[in-house]
Amino acid sequence: MPTYDERLRDLEERLRHDDPGFAEAMSGGTPRPPREYRHRNAWLWLAAGLAVLGIGIAVGHGLLIAAGLVVSGAAQHLVDPQRGRLHGRDIPSTR
Predict the structure, then answer these.
(1) Residue numbers of the domain that contains 76
(2) Membrane spanning segments where (predicted)?
């Protein structure tokens, strides 16, 4: 049976493998949110998609409206805080 220290080392290695930036920030003492809570690029894509959607509606161009809807929908999926959960169960990360 693994000892307490071995389990902690295993946890540390998995964390370092999954999110090296967060692991470095933890060891350096500077706080940084984990990857699951960083949505900066998703918010930018959402804003761009909504801008394209608005321009498409104003101009009356169907292709711009469709592109804005698709980009906004995809970005909204990235912003969703519960995207890793399905019917109450955790889904393993593919990253």
Answers:
(1) 39-95
(2) 42-71
